[in-house]
């Protein structure tokens, strides 16, 4: 299995043998047990990291392994990501120390819609205004640059994966679409409330 890892303007092509995923299953389980106790994600302590948060934590460890030249640890961290996100094609690692800026590029299913549907991607949580606002902030990324374009991503609860919004030529257009997606997610998170 191949994982493309981008760090600034460098790209690393990590070849993770299928056998490594099987051999490292106990190691991956230990990583999960460690994260079960909670983890510091940026400025926030997360009591029970979900799959996406765990992958961000491991992506951070992958960045450190690559920067330190630790090939073995790098392959193990890449293996964890490929095992937990089978649709993962590449990852862009942020070197600024912000764990939330790591970007996962997932291969969409052939029949997947090109635009994120935030209405159907949200479970009926029924959150109050502040909780919905905070949750929407976690589930709709900031606008980020992709080549010469701009886009954002929205977490899809149905698939447990991040879905990219449309690629825009101008940052202001991506920001407008992101704002609409954020508002739709915020409102969807509130609507599920049983009054």
Descriptive notes:
The chain is α+β, with helices and mostly antiparallel strands and 195 residues long. It is 42% helix and 22% strand. It has a 4-stranded mixed β-sheet with strand order 2-1-5-6, with helices on one face. It has a two-stranded antiparallel ribbon with strand order 3-4. Strands 7-8 form a two-stranded antiparallel sheet. A hairpin with a 2-residue loop joins strand 7 (144-146) and strand 8 (149-151). Helix 3 (51-68) packs antiparallel against helix 4 (71-84). It starts with a strand and ends with a helix. Mean pLDDT is 83; it is low at 109-125.
Kindly summarize this structure in a few lines.
Helices cover 42% and strands 22% of the residues. The protein is of the alpha+beta class.
Layout of strands and helices, then pairs:
Elements: E1 2-7, E2 10-15, H1 18-23, H2 25-36, E3 39-41, E4 44-46, H3 51-68, H4 71-84, E5 88-93, E6 103-106, H5 129-139, E7 144-146, E8 149-151, E9 153-156, E10 161-164, H6 171-191
Parallel strand pairs: 1-5
Antiparallel strand pairs: 1-2, 3-4, 5-6, 7-8, 9-10
Helix pairs in contact: 3-4, 5-6
Between the first and last Cα atoms, what is the distance in angstroms?
49 Å
Major sheet attributes: 4 strands, mixed
Radius of gyration: 17 Å
- Quick one: overall form? globular
In spatial order, strands of the major sheet run 2-1-5-6
In terms of DSSP E residues, the strand content is: 15-25%
Instruction: Calculate the mean pLDDT score and round it.
Output: 83
Give the helix level as a range of percent: 40-55%
Work out the number of β strands: 10
- Content-based structural category: alpha+beta
Order of helices and strands: EEHHEEHHEEHEEEEH
Question: Helical segment tally?
Answer: 6
Low-confidence stretches: 109-125
